[in-house]
Design brief:
2 helices, 15% helix, 279 residues
């Protein structure tokens, strides 16, 4: 009888040890599999996310979309510090969009302004979906200190900007893009180089007080003064010059041809070749 009791006690003890061992092993496994406890947020932060998007709709279409790989919302709300920023402003026909990228930016949801202190790239007219790709290079603007107003759609900077386009590149101080009018404005110190269409052609340099590029009309306006140079030929003008994109070289050629009569603008245009004034 005593032996039986001892056996029963040993059996109970073995079962208790086994259950305890299984329990401890399960808890250890669960602890290893559990996600790490996130660090507590700083007092000036109300939210922090990896991967964040914000879209503004107009009717049944999207006006713009901001995507960021990282986001920190400030404690007062409506202000977002973004990393890995990709802004897309959609054209009204949804056949293309303008793309703005930056490593870091600050978005104020209350006034709809996105601002980037660092480097920014703006690419105009990127085809959407299955839309055909353009035959030439898209207009690409690089600058810093760019302010994008989501209410007007305008992007603006007062700083130095460089730009590349089909058959050329250039630079200026201060720039603005308005997607409503489709105009790019370069405010001052404009200088651009236009490469020839053929290998035997010669490049042309354009300088101007300011420049307006009309995207919809494919026109360039130079004012209030401009200088066009190709090889040994130079045209200095004190009036506004308007020409189709890629046709400034043709304009320079026409202006250098012998003229008859007086068009009333002679005192405002000067043509020089190898330092010799032609007209």
């Amino acid at each position: 009888m005593r032996r039986t009791r001892r056996l029963i006690l040993l059996l109970i003890l073995a079962i208790a040890v086994a259950v305890g061992f299984i329990y401890i092993k399960q808890k250890t496994t669960q602890a290893k599999a559990a996600p790490p406890i996130p660090d507590s947020l700083p007092t000036d932060t109300s939210a922090k996310l990896n991967g964040w998007s914000y879209t503004k709709d107009e009717g049944n279409r999207s006006a713009f979309r901001i995507h960021a790989t990282g986001m920190r919302e400030t404690a007062e709300g409506n202000r977002y510090e973004l990393e890995g920023v990709d802004l897309r402003v959609f054209h009204k026909r949804d056949d293309a969009f303008d793309k703005v990228t930056s490593q870091k930016a600050l978005f104020d949801k209350s006034d709809g302004v996105l601002y980037s202190e660092g480097d920014v790239e703006i690419t105009l007219g990127v085809p959407s979906g299955d839309q055909p790709k353009p035959s030439g290079k898209l207009l690409l603007i690089k600058s810093s200190g760019v302010r994008y107003d989501s209410k007007t759609g305008k992007a603006f900077t007062e700083r130095a900007a460089t730009f590349t386009f089909d058959r050329g590149e250039g630079k200026a101080t201060g720039a603005e893009y308005d997607p409503v009018t489709g105009e790019v404005r370069m405010f001052k110190d404009v200088s651009l180089t236009m490469h020839p269409r053929t290998p035997k052609g010669k490049a042309m340099t354009v300088e101007a007080g300011n420049l307006v590029y009309k995207e919809k009309e494919q026109k360039v306006l130079l004012s209030p003064w401009s200088r066009l140079k190709r090889d040994s030929l130079t045209l200095d003008s004190l009036r506004k010059i308007a020409a189709g994109v890629g046709r400034l070289d043709l304009f320079l050629h026409k202006m250098s041809l012998p003229q008859t009569g007086h068009n009333g603008e002679g005192s405002r245009i000067s043509i020089r070749q190898s330092g010799r004034r032609l007209r």
